[in-house]
């Protein structure tokens, strides 16, 4: 089985570029079928209101629940104080099994990590090159699994991608996906050093062609077990607890955050760094 772990769907409400405007699936699903991909994990495009965007994705997912999985997109700043509510709705009403966060919106927060821990869902966090954060996430939240897509940079930032590989190797709860990775030598290094258990196949559809993205996985190895892990096994493993509703019996206390709890800042500030 082949599962595409990274695909956008639905309309954005911006008009900057396709990423916040529209993610149409029509051609993409035909390409996926031709490429032998059986299932696709969907989440929204950039949006100013992720409650609406997630609801729209859930309509697509739940029309064909055997064909699609869904992740809840959340914004660390705009959705402050309602992250739990958004994830709760996505997991319990829509049957979603993960959270998507983008550094372009805002830096990930404790509120998001604690919601992920409560619901036993992985967090797919595009760090946009901000790799140092991964160390904190991995050590502060060892029970939460983090998928850092594109080896940390969709824009081929070599310094970021090379820096992510040791973190993938060292932290059992850090993963990456193959979507959009152009520097094949780095993907191969990640495979050799961190291993097939840390890499998920993803396409970043509907804007990238799934067959082209898939080929990168098939040229990494011919080992069937390794391929199966990257193509489906890792995704299924990471989402298994959520899909089985493990949180219902886990008895964890519900995390409480208010709109004003956490002084979130857009800029990274090291108090001891003199400019
Ligand atoms: Zn993406």
From TrEMBL:
InterPro entries: Amidohydro-rel (IPR006680), Metal_Hydrolase (IPR032466). Residues 46-234 form the Amidohydrolase-related domain. GO terms for molecular function: hydrolase activity. Keywords: Hydrolase. The keyword Lyase does not apply. The keyword tRNA processing does not apply. This is Amidohydrolase.
């Amino acid at each position: 089985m082949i599962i595409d772990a990274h695909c956008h769907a639905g309309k954005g409400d911006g008009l900057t570029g396709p990423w916040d405007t529209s993610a149409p699936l029509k051609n993409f699903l035909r390409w996926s079928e031709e490429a032998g991909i059986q299932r696709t994990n969907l989440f929204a495009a950039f949006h100013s209101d992720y409650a609406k965007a997630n609801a729209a994705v859930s309509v697509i997912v739940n029309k064909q629940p055997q064909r699609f999985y869904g992740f809840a997109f959340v914004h660390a700043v705009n959705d402050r104080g309602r992250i739990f509510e958004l994830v709760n709705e996505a997991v319990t009403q829509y049957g979603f099994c993960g959270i998507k966060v983008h550094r372009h919106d805002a830096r990930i927060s404790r509120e998001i990590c604690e919601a992920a821990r409560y619901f036993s869902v992985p967090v797919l966090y595009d760090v946009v090159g901000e790799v140092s954060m991964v160390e904190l996430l991995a050590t502060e939240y060892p029970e939460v699994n983090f998928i850092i897509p594109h080896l940390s940079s969709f824009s081929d930032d070599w310094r970021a991608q090379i820096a992510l590989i040791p973190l993938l190797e060292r932290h059992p709860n850090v993963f990456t996906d193959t979507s959009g990775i152009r520097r094949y030598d780095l993907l191969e290094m990640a495979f050799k050093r961190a291993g097939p258990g840390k890499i998920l196949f993803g396409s970043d559809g509907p804007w990238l062609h799934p067959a082209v993205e898939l080929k990168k996985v098939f040229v990494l190895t011919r080992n069937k077990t390794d391929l199966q892990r990257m193509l489906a096994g890792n995704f299924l493993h990471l989402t298994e607890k959520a899909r089985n509703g493990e949180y219902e019996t886990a008895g964890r206390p519900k995390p409480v955050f208010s709109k004003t709890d956490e002084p979130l800042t857009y800029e990274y500030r090291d108090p001891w760094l003199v400019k």
